[in-house]
Amino acid sequence: MLAFAHRGGAYHPEIEGLENTLQAFAHAVGLGYSYLETDVHVTSDGVLLAFHDTVLDRVTDRTGAIATSTYAEVQRARINGSDPVPTLAELFDEFPDARFNIDVKAPGAVPALAAFLAEREAWDRVCVGSFSGRRLREFRRLTGGRVVTSASPGEVAAYRLLPSAVARVVTRGRPRVLQVPHRAARITIVTPGLVRRAHRAGVQVHVWTVDDAAEMRVLLERGVDGLMTDRTDVLKDVLHETGRWRA
Question: Locate the GP-PDE domain: which residues (predicted)?
Fold first, then answer.
């Protein structure tokens, strides 16, 4: 059972307002989390940032799009008025024993991330996903299959609708994991059948973003392999209760 600190545990009461900061990730590691989730964007001068939004406006004291800002400009921003926006390099250096689940949120981040992983030979430290099938295809091409990737929306649909053997053929065995919400609108995505089909194909199922203890227990009973949460305290407690916590 993999426990992911989503944005470092964005809604843990002790660090609320400090999502995706070094302080938040350090807090999660201190709780015993070794799987950290972040999105990545790239500045106009090519620096990879561990940051969720396309713009600085929501969580920092500055405004502007990441893609059109230089790293020097982003460095002046403060999350919650106190913490700088970290680079992906800073996360890798600060937490050398951690594994990272990375969502590529912008086209320019794809080649930058591929080059970053190649420079550090860090292909085994990450799982990379994206809502964009195009960005995933480009990333897989640039990394030559050396990096574990999650399924694109189209690949998820294959596992949702087709027998496992057919889904594996349709997706060419490229996704190693389905990273999906429990529900989308009125549709339940993570059904017992989906989990069974994925497992028959050797594919894991990770669910995001789950902050409610009762919902966590339901998903654990369905046999999911990982949960991403903003409430790192709640997930840790549930995994302790069910004998699944492993720091």
Answer: 1-239
